[in-house]
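Quick start: read one record
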Amino acid sequence: MSNVPLVIINAFLFIVPAYIGNASAALFGHGKPIDSGRKLADGRRLFGDGKTWAGFLLGVFFAFAAGTTEGYFLQGSGLEVGGVGTYALLGLMLGIGSMTGDLLGSFVKRRMGFGRGKKAPLWDQLNFVLGAILFAAPIMVPPWNQLLVILVATPGIHLFLNWLGHELNCKPVPW
């Protein structure tokens, strides 16, 4: 049981660039929607106004920056799993994955008839993490116990941070 805290620390060190990328997209991602207003045959938007090019690109950039920063500060700590370049690449892939997972989440929600900002419990909290893990897999797959920590902890963390973003007038809805 003495390694439980290390499992938690390593889980968060792995996923934090995806968290930062996802939050950055929500905070700074205003502008032109990725789908440019296009609708499918079902009459619903592909993704909606909340998914913008600026949000996607800034989310990837901030995840990359977070991964690079982690790699720099973890050097020689005994917690690192590679050099700065490995962390930079991991941050990039976590960023692309988290943004793609979030985009796919919006696509699925639109097909199911959910409008922008409507709740989809667990789906809203996990789509970006699942995308991040999938895209990062060619570089690193955390052990099952770290993946479990990420999947169990993310919904609560995501809901808390979204509530905080709403309270600070950075998000229109608290979820």
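The first helix runs from residue 4 to 28.
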